[in-house]
Structure to design on (139 residues):
């Protein structure tokens, strides 16, 4: 399906996915770590409230740290995957929905990186990857 979704007054609607969500009503990793460190600082390590609490807190701290590292590595892998996919488009015929709602076609001559997403250079136009609707091998 390559037709844009018509909005009010038949203006095509375009949507961009957010890469992250910043909610003010939830604690972030830094807030959690600050609370955990403060609790550990004011607790007597030789006499914790329970025998397993200190080890549990240390394990939780380590888990949060490792999950943060995994999230960072996943973001790097996603960026690399997008770059490899973008580079593979050079020489392919593409179709996309232009700003005015029309479907345009052309052959990708190069790909530019920078900003949130790569852009395909088709003729004298730069087309964001999110606008591409079809990719094919040129005849």
């Amino acid at each position: 399906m390559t037709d844009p979704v018509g909005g009010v007054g038949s203006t095509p609607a375009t949507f961009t996915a957010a890469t992250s969500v910043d909610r003010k009503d939830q604690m972030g990793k830094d807030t959690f770590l600050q609370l955990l460190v403060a609790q550990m600082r004011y607790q007597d390590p030789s006499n914790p409230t329970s025998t397993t609490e200190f080890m549990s807190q240390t394990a939780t701290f380590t888990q949060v740290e490792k999950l943060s590292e995994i999230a960072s590595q996943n973001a790097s892998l996603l960026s690399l995957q997008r770059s490899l996919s973008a580079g593979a488009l050079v020489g392919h015929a593409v179709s996309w929905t232009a700003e005015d709602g029309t479907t345009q076609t052309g052959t990708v001559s190069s790909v530019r990186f920078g900003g949130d997403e790569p852009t395909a250079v088709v003729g004298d136009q730069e087309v964001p990857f999110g606008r591409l609707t079809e990719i094919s091998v040129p005849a």
Summary: The mean pLDDT is 76.
